[in-house]
Amino acid sequence: MASAPRSDIHRLTVPPEARGERLDRFLAGRDLPVSRSRLQALMAEGRVRVDGRVPKPSRKLRGGEVVEVEIPPPERWDVEPEELPIQVIHEDPWLAVVAKPRGMVVHPAPGHRGGTLVNALLHRLRDLSGVGGVLRPGIVHRLDRDTTGLIVVAKDDETHRMLQNRFRARSVEKVYLAVVIGRMRGEGVIDRPIGRHPANRKKMAVDAPRSRPAVTRWRVLSELRGATLLEVRIETGRTHQIRVHLASVGHPVAGDPVYGGAARARGVGDPVARRLLLAAPAQALHAWKLGFEHPRTGEYVRFTAPVPEDLAALIRGLGGEVPKGKERNLGEEARPVGRSAADGS
């Protein structure tokens, strides 16, 4: 009979230069195989010890202590296929492009074992790559839970790796639609590094400690009542990048509860616009177009996700027209010209 898997114990000796640092911040800066949120849970469960005793996360270190972090074996999950509302924009023998609805998490995680895009993909598609493991089959990139729009999914391992390389090389064209609070004009570039917010670990911030470069290009599609409809392209793919960058210039995405969309909407002078913006879908951000060189055929392909009805209703209610685009465009018009047109994630 096979023995049960054991916990991993990671032992760290606190160096002299960490004297006076909080335990939780010290551990957050170490190379441990867990996320910060998981680390906080381990401390709450008493799985972190300093010199053999369970401390508070706020304990100040002196230097020289031995910190033990017990990481239990992962719980075995069986991810089940589920019939969920996703739209398959394109499917071929190697990949699929799907439109994710608002409110759907991309892959299972603690607190979201079902109802995810992965559950839906297992129901809709026959094959998915195994590169992402049991919990992330086929998943090459992600969108935030409340961001709608396009995701490309790999159906075999080689295609998965080839797509990953295109994302790393920033040769994937990713175009978003965003309704932002306030009036913006023309076009512009936001070039500010993004990192974890120093006081709120669930948020990101510009110019934060350990920030990474981030570049967002935007242009106005139409001026709305109390708001602006933007086309946004990202050259990098940082967490919450579009939301953080637009909020940093004073124009948060409408409906964004984390980066000030709701708070800023309360100050809109037009009462009709204010009411609509306060009722906006949790964040008015849509992954609209996706373009890349097909890893198997070598052809440049571009796909467009229809604008979801809640976002379309917001745009119309604010006096704008809903942008339209071809669902699929293969050929001369689809291929980007120059670096700026090929800006990816």
Structural class: alpha+beta
CATH architecture of the largest domain: 2-Layer Sandwich
Domains, number: 3
Helix-strand pattern: EHHEEEEHEHEEEEEEHHHEEHEH
Sheet with the most strands, sense and barrel status: 10 strands, mixed
Measured between the Cα atoms of the first and last residue, the distance is 48 Å
Could you explain the architecture of this structure?
By secondary structure, the chain is of the alpha+beta class. It has 3 domains: 8-71, Structural Genomics Hypothetical 15.5 Kd Protein In mrcA-pckA Intergenic Region, Chain A, CATH 3.10.290; 87-168, 2-Layer Sandwich (Pseudouridine synthase); 173-341, 2-Layer Sandwich (Pseudouridine synthase). The chain is 20% helix and 26% strand. It has helices at residues 23-28, 36-44, 117-124, 157-168, 241-248, 261-265, 271-278, 309-317, 338-341; strands at 8-13, 48-50, 66-71, 87-91, 95-100, 148-154, 173-181, 187-191, 194-196, 204-206, 215-224, 227-234, 285-293, 300-304, 328-330. A hairpin with a 7-residue loop joins strand 9 (194-196) and strand 10 (204-206).
Short description:
The protein has about 350 residues and is α+β, with helices and mostly antiparallel strands. Helix content is about 20%, strand content about 25%.
List the SSEs and their pairings:
Elements: E1 8-13, H1 23-28, H2 36-44, E2 48-50, E3 66-71, E4 87-91, E5 95-100, H3 117-124, E6 148-154, H4 157-168, E7 173-181, E8 187-191, E9 194-196, E10 204-206, E11 215-224, E12 227-234, H5 241-248, H6 261-265, H7 271-278, E13 285-293, E14 300-304, H8 309-317, E15 328-330, H9 338-341
Parallel strand pairs: 6-13
Antiparallel strand pairs: 1-3, 2-3, 4-5, 5-6, 7-12, 7-13, 8-11, 9-10, 11-12, 13-14, 14-15
